[in-house]
Design brief:
By secondary structure, the chain is α/β, with parallel strands linked by helices. The protein has 4 domains: 256 residues, 2-enoyl-CoA Hydratase, Chain A, domain 1, CATH 3.90.226; 181 residues, NAD(P)-binding Rossmann-like Domain (Rossmann fold, 3-Layer(aba) Sandwich), CATH 3.40.50; 120 residues, Orthogonal Bundle (N-(1-d-carboxylethyl)-l-norvaline Dehydrogenase, domain 2); 97 residues, N-(1-d-carboxylethyl)-l-norvaline Dehydrogenase, domain 2 (Orthogonal Bundle), CATH 1.10.1040. It contains 29 helices and 17 strands. The strands form 3 sheets. Strands 12-11-10-13-14-15-16-17 form an 8-stranded mixed beta sheet, sandwiched between helices. The longest helix has 21 residues. The radius of gyration is 28 Å and the shape is globular.
Length: 699
């Protein structure tokens, strides 16, 4: 198949890239563009050139099939240099998206015409790298350093209107893009090329102080990431160096990013998120059920947040509560959420009213009879869940999907309380449900394939990352959270201060430490859960000190005191000497001689516990892939994406080293909680990785 073709109309050469589905910059596309530039440069019948794309988009970036392979010449930096060096004007005709290398091709063109619906962007930072074909040098020259930094550091898609205001686009049209680009090429033929790389930046406006302020503004968001600082250095080079030297600096910094482990980790996450919807036994031929109306049981924080996901994509919602006051309060919170978005300019007042019009409140189960999917978000006890599902079994129409938002309970047991277990599954949203990307889709033993397929597709429709999990206590995420929290709490009772544990894991890359997280969630939640368990079921030394806190009234942030103290109206945790005294007392009661615990040990114990539990989940078949577990932890629990999730992090350490460390902890702390997962032992002894396991078990 020819991916780059050419035709000439009245002195204008039209080069068309046709490489479905997104016109990626594969070797054949690069080769074709370079070939056409060479041939057209000496064609006296051609006065100007238009580069356009067939299909639904302009060049949308690199060919992901070439990731991890040595690139074949011609290399993209050489191709864009050839385009910019042309003596005849070159016009890019942009529709869909011009992303990454696609935008770098467009920036090398002398002029750019785009549809109003088009978007541009340089998203490479999300893959742990930076634009390596002149994007960091040409975009600052045409858009200005401030706008370029915004685009490059965020990796966001920039709309055509904004891009035109920046100067990146010369003309925006609403239809007949190719005709408009050809007309622009005719008009520019007499003016000749206007090379982006030759544009000058007023360096007096963008000195060291400008860049220092920018670095400060992104410090929190980019904490721990390697690539953003190198992106900033590239833009600094664009300001201070001529193009050729700036391109050389860009190449050096690009190679630094490529050789950093974060690039591999972030690219792993890129592919992992695209894998999660590939489910054994489910394919394009599997039937899907139509979801035209959704019912939600419970209008609390969780239920309201879940409901917003569907309303946001135009699916009407019937929301049920037991009392009118609770229903009104819940819908009031939903309205406030939308009005908050409107205050930020993200919605208009009309759009807020339109979204609220998607909601119907009710106090009667009978009003759920026309719903195609019903999700319960009620109190987390089996007795209440079964009662709700009994009512749903009575009122739901035939073929309706019945889902539980349970975060721990046995979905098989819930399904068995109905006469239609094949219609039942878990849909575990994460709080706040209208914000968090993760959705655990819990496949029960009798869940029908079309039910699962429908919900996997629905996750995409409501802009969630849906990961399928098997039934077990806590599924994937919360099951792994338990040993992580246990080790953090044990470090405290054994000698570390709570703030030392939090600092160690925060510095590892977690958004907050486990003690702060416990305070935010409410210490009483864990306390109540433990009251329902026998003391033989959990590590009492880890949690007795937390139980004493709750019994003294310290339930966490919501009451202004938990593991930490909080000033009135503040969410900032402050170490409290009274808590340390309580911890020391509990240590003495347990016969523990407190000792200094290093940050390294804290991180190792928490991470090894997380990885080992993940390996158990994978070995038991409760997750289809190790990479699915990584997706859960990055999107639901704040695991640093630049480490690639816990299972990829284990691979980066080497599974033989992970296995040895877990065995070492078993000898040091006792085997009860440090039994290596059978799968981990098997892979370590075979010299394999979790990535190998995924590849060998791919279906």
């Amino acid at each position: 198949m020819t991916t780059v073709s050419k035709e000439i109309r009245e002195g204008i050469a039209i080069i068309t890239v046709d490489n479905p589905p997104v016109n990626a910059l594969s070797h054949s596309v690069r080769e074709g563009l370079a070939r056409e530039m060479r041939e057209l440069s000496s064609n006296a019948d051609v006065r100007a050139i238009v580069i356009a794309c067939a299909g639904r988009t302009f060049i949308a970036g690199a060919d992901i099939r070439e990731f991890g392979r040595p690139p074949q010449p011609p290399h993209l930096p050489d191709v864009v240099t050839e385009i910019e060096a042309m003596e005849k004007p070159v016009v890019a005709a942009i529709h869909g998206t011009a992303l990454g290398g696609g935008l770098e091709v467009a920036l090398a063109c002398h002029y750019r015409v785009a549809l109003g619906s088009a978007k541009i962007g340089l998203p490479e930072v999300k893959l742990g790298i930076l634009p390596g074909a002149g994007g960091t040098q040409r975009l600052p020259r045409i858009a200005g350093p401030a706008n370029a930094l915004d685009a490059i550091i965020s990796g966001r898609h920039v709309g055509a209107g904004e891009a035109k205001n920046w100067g990146v686009l010369d003309e925006v049209v609403e239809d007949d893009l190719l005709d408009a680009a050809i007309a622009f090429a005719h008009a520019s033929a007499d003016n000749g090329p206007r090379r982006t790389g030759e544009m000058e930046i007023d360096s007096d406006k963008f000195g060291p102080e400008f860049f220092a302020q920018f670095r400060e503004s992104i410090a929190r968001k980019t904490r721990g990431y390697f690539a953003p600082e190198r992106c900033v250095q590239c833009v600094e080079a664009a300001v201070s160096l001529p193009l050729e030297e700036g391109l050389k600096r860009e190449r050096e910094l690009f190679q630094e990013c490529m050789s950093n482990p974060q690039a591999k980790a972030l690219q792993h996450m890129f592919f992992a998120e695209r894998q999660v919807s590939r489910i054994p036994g489910i394919d394009k031929g599997t039937p899907r059920r139509d979801i035209k109306r959704v019912g939600i049981i419970g209008a609390g924080t969780m239920g309201g947040g879940i409901a917003m996901n569907f309303a946001n994509v135009g699916i009407p919602v019937t929301i049920l509560e037991v009392e009118q006051e609770a229903l009104d309060r819940g819908l009031g919170v939903v309205r406030k959420n939308y009005e908050r978005s409107a205050a930020k300019g993200k919605l208009t007042a009309e759009q807020v009213e339109g979204l609220m019009g998607q909601f119907t409140g009710t106090l009667s189960y009978d009003d759920l009879g026309d719903c195609d999917l019903i999700i319960e978000a009620v109190f987390e006890t089996m007795e209440i869940k079964k009662k709700v599902f009994g009512e749903l079994d009575r009122v739901a129409k035939k073929g309706a999907i019945l889902a539980s938002n349970t975060s721990y309970l046995d979905v098989n047991e819930i399904a068995a309380s109905t006469s239609r277990p094949d219609d039942v599954l878990g849909l575990h949203f994460f709080s706040p449900a209208n914000v968090m990307r993760l959705l655990e889709i819990v496949r029960a033993d009798q869940t029908a394939p079309d039910v699962l397929a429908t919900c996997v597709g629905l996750a995409k429709a409501i802009r969630k990352v849906g990961v399928v999990a098997g039934v077990c206590h806590g599924f994937i995420g919360n099951r792994m959270l338990s040993p992580y929290g246990r080790e953090a709490a044990l470090c405290v009772i054994e000698g570390a201060k709570p703030e030392e544990v939090d600092a160690a894991l925060f510095n590892f890359g977690m958004p907050m430490g486990p003690m702060t997280m416990s305070d935010m969630a409410g210490l009483d939640i864990g306390y109540l859960n433990r009251q329902g368990l026998g003391r033989e079921s959990y590590e009492t030394k880890a949690y007795d000190w937390m139980d004493r806190l709750v019994e003294s009234g310290r339930k966490g942030l919501k009451v202004g005191a938990g593991v930490y103290a909080y000033d009135e109206g503040s969410r900032t945790p402050k170490p409290d000497p009274a808590v340390l005294t309580l911890i020391e007392t509990e240590s003495a009661k347990a016969g523990i001689e407190r000792r200094a615990i290093s940050s390294e040990e804290i991180v190792e114990r928490c991470m090894m516990a997380l990885i080992n539990e993940g390996a158990k989940i994978l070995g038991e078949g409760k997750a289809y892939r190790a990479s699915d577990i990584d997706v859960v932890y990055v999107n639901g629990y704040g695991y640093p994406p630049y480490r690639g999730g816990p299972m990829h992090y284990a691979d980066s350490l080497g599974l033989e080293n992970v296995y040895a460390k877990i065995c070492e902890f078993g000898e040091k702390f006792g085997p009860r909680w440090w039994q290596p997962a059978p799968l981990l032992k098997e892979l370590a002894e075979a010299g394999k990785s979790f990535a190998d396991y995924d590849r060998e078990n791919a279906k």
